[in-house]
Amino acid sequence: MRKWNSTLLAVSLSVAALAACAAPTTTTTASSESPAAGAASPAAAGAPSRLDTILSRGTLICGVEGTIPGFSFVDSSGKYTGLDVDVCKAIAAALFNDPEKVEFRNLDSTARFPAVSSGEVDMLSRNTTWTASRDAAGGNGLEFAPTTFYDGQGVMVTKASGISSFKDLDGKAVCVETGTTTELNLATRATEANIKINEVKFQDSNAGFAAYQEGRCEAITSDRSQLAAKRTALPTPDDNILLEDVLSKEPLGPVTVNNDSRWYDVVRWVTYGLIQAEEFGITQANVDQKLQDPSPDIKRFLGTDGDLGKQLGLSPDFMVRAIKAGGNYGEIYERNIGTGSALKIDRGLNKLWTDGGLMYAPPFR
Amino acid sequence: MTTAPPSITSSRPPADQVGAIAWLRKNLFNSWFNSLLTVILGLLLVRSLYGFLSWATTTAKWAVIPANLPLFFVGRYPVAQYWRIWVIISLLAVLSGLSWGILSRNMAKLFDRNILIAFGIAAAIAVLAPTPVPFRILLVGVLGLVLASSWMGRIVGRRMPQLGQWLSLGWGLSLLVVWWLIAGGIGLPGVKTNDWGGLLLTMFMSVSSILLCFPLGILLALGRQSSLPALRWISITFIEVIRGVPLITLLFVGAYMVPLFLPPGIRFNQLLLAVISLTLFSAAYLAENVRGGLQSVPRGQTEAANALGLNSVLATILIVLPQALKVSIPTIVGQFISLVQDTTLVGLLGAFEMLGISRSVLANPAFIGRYAEVYLFIGAIYWILCYAMSLGSRRLEKQLNTTH
User: Fold this and answer.
1) Cβ(B205)–Cβ(B271) under 8 Å?
2) Which span out of A15-19, A156-160, B97-101, B162-166 was modeled with the highest average pLDDT?
3) Mean pLDDT of all residues in B207-228
């Protein structure tokens, strides 16, 4: 009987302890709308902005997916890594001159939009396709920053098959996941190209890949980023190639909440800045030398001349900080998903506009 | 006429009635149909085992496990603060050693053979673990701590048997210390719940939910049997509503809907909401398990207690509950085991508990496609956790067994 007495005592003690300890954590992330840091941003003329909240908090909270190869995942040393992650870090560096002043939240596809609207995260950098209904005020009511990765449905074939373009798929067997837009896109593009494709349908993507591996189909179609990731898991990845053809449009980029132009402009222009830096040839390594560059464009861009930073509510050298964090867009791309990674996704549409791609930043002036 | 009395020395039974062969014949080959089944299933089993072993030794690339070991165990917990985890492990090792020593002070041997074998295996794992040498030394040190403190506990426990009552208080206090060490504050740098992960987070969620749901479940069970209609109906409604909803729904409500109801600016910690959801869910099931136990206690027990002058509260706490809980130990532990496994659902909501961190490890381009290795590894850890719980419950049952 004494034993039960003391057990009950211990249980009630521990309950009290847990309840007491749990209390302080409940409101740790309460967002204070106090414009304490308003003084730091001369452009704080308008309504209170999330930008003030972030500056007074001292860290950026960035929503990521957390389990996408090359885009966002936790590496073996426990650090968030990937293209989406590096975009967040560049923005954190532009704000605080420290790329580590960012907190990541894993969000699945159900949680991502409520998390932005409720202000739980300051922004999303979590392969979200930019669509009209998501952007519209009557839809999800979000703001889409410039696209950081033009994904799209692609086709992977074995080198041995000799297929080099979508047209060559005429009469060939293609593995495809059934009941998805992937399947519809394939049929549409085949009709357009006036070729006949023998579709081999699978209920889930892993089964499709197994079939492709066994040689039951000569090609497999899915999102290009996913194909690239799965390719690395094949026994001989180099014997498989991703065709240049893109069958659908999936522009992925950072997202912020609607009706907050000051914060949205920061995200938009830092992202554009990364693309512009690549165009200027400014890299993580040479950014300090480029500060001496006589070109007026580069001077304005890096903040040695003019007051672009001030107008955005940031410090004049915000782009210097962002580039020092992880390099320009090209460096971020190659390191995470391009030639510097296991994924080796071809730049394709993600080349600069000067190289025939879609990456284009409006002028910084 | 005298005959020699029949020898009474025992002779071995005929060889065809005992031994392995006889057992085989009796159980596996007693008819042509069973023999056929045995042969076919045996071949299948051997073939699968061979397939698994050849996969495990040739195709599988186990490098993913040692490379990410810290992630599996503590997730993104800051490396500079790992020492706090080691302090926690040592503290728990000393406490469990002491408890073992004190509780088994009257047994002939401190450890029986099975436990010694388990220790041997644990020591072998500690020595051979694919971690840096300092970690292995620490692991062996922890095992040594368990042995030393159990020996100490035995000696001290024999001198001062009343010490046993203070053990539960010690465990209760250790919870506070563990909580402080994990989360920080008061003199230690804080570690945000966002950075907790792996086995640490799984254990934290399981232990907190178990400790919270146990008293809540008992109160609900008593409430359901109460003679006060309001209390009874509240308990019944709570139990039936929670039991009628899948856990994943509760977790979604906690994670996404509760923040919508709260005034803007107030936000609850996601981990706290998850623990609350798990607690409420388990408490409803636990209440039904305990009710089964309560109903198995004969009415005579309560009447006898009343006759002795105990009021109904004391009669419940001192007479009925101890007996009811003893009866329900197996089902309660079953509930706790499934609670440990249910924590994986929180991983679907983005928490880096053991399953969540595994999904992130699998997204590392260096380890894409290593599903089987990673899931086997964390499966083994879950199994060890749950099997340890069921062993513990069996021991507790044996210790509390007072039937004759």
Assistant:
1) yes
2) A156-160
3) 92
Determine the Cα angle at B130 with ends B127 and B134, to 5°.
Answer: 60
Name the residue with higher pLDDT: B203 or B184: B203
- Kindly tell me the burial class for residue A117, based on how many C-beta atoms sit within 10 Å of its own C-beta (0-12, 13-18, 19 or more): middle
Q: Is residue A146 within 8 Å of A358, Cβ to Cβ? A: no
Sign of the CA dihedral running A183, A186, A192, A198: negative
d(CA A200, CA A190): 14
Q: In angstroms, rounded to a whole number, what is the distance separating the alpha carbons of residues B327 and B289? A: 10
Residue intervals of chain B classified under CATH 1.10.3720.10 are: 195-404
> Which residue bears the tokens 């195709």?
B59
What is the Cα–Cα distance from B382 to B85, expressed in whole angstroms? 19
Nearest CA in chain A to B197: A78
Chain B (202-221) residues lying within 8 Å, Cβ to Cβ, of chain A:
208, 211-212, 214-215
- Residue range B222-244, pLDDT digits in tens: 999 888 899 999 999 999 999 99
Chain B CB contacts of A4 below 8 Å: 318, 321-322, 325
Q: Which of residues 314-373 of B touch A (CB under 8 A)?
A: 317-318, 321-322, 325, 348-352, 356-357, 359-366, 368-369
Q: What is the pLDDT confidence band of residue B4, given thresholds at 50, 70 and 90?
A: low
Q: Using 70 as the pLDDT threshold, list the residues of chain A that sit under it.
A: 1-47, 205
Is B1's pLDDT higher than 60?
Answer: no
ipTM higher than 0.85?
A: no
CB-CB under 8 Å, A69 with B77: no
Contact A147, A135 (CB under 8 A): no
pLDDT higher than 80, residue B401: no
* Residue B74, pLDDT above cutoff 70: yes
Find the range with the poorest average confidence among A106-120, B257-271, B288-302: B257-271
Query: Residue B8 CB: number of other CB atoms within 10 A?
Result: 5
Query: For chain A, which domains are there?
Result: 40-150+251-355 (3.40.190.10), 153-248 (3.40.190.10)
Euclidean distance between the first and the last CA atom of chain A, given in angstroms as a whole number: 81
Which of chain B's residues have a Cβ under 8 Å away from the Cβ of A3? 165
Architecture of the domain defined by B195-404: Orthogonal Bundle (1.10)
Nearest to A229 among B168, B180, B368 (CB): B368
A104 contacts A80 by C-beta, under 8 angstroms? yes
Amino acid symbol at A172: K
Nearest-neighbour CA in chain B from A206: distance (Å): 10
pLDDT at A26: 36
Residue B347's pLDDT band, with cuts at 50, 70 and 90, is confident
How confident is the model at residue B397, as a pLDDT? 82
Of the candidates A282, A292, A268, A360, the one whose C-alpha atom is nearest the C-alpha of residue A323 is: A282
Pairwise CA distance, residues B251 & B256, whole Å: 8
CA-nearest of A111, A350, A105, A117 to A242 is A350
How far is it, in rounded angstroms, from Cα A129 to Cα A144? Answer: 9
The predicted pLDDT at position B116 comes to 82
Contacts of A212 in chain B (CB under 8 A): none
Determine the pLDDT at residue A44: 46
* φ and ψ of A111, to 5 deg: -85, -20
> Does A103 sit within 8 Å of B71, measured CB to CB?
no
Q: How many whole angstroms separate alpha carbon A25 and alpha carbon B269?
A: 6
Give the 3-state secondary structure of residue B177: helix
* Gap between the Cα atoms of A15 and A356, Å rounded: 64
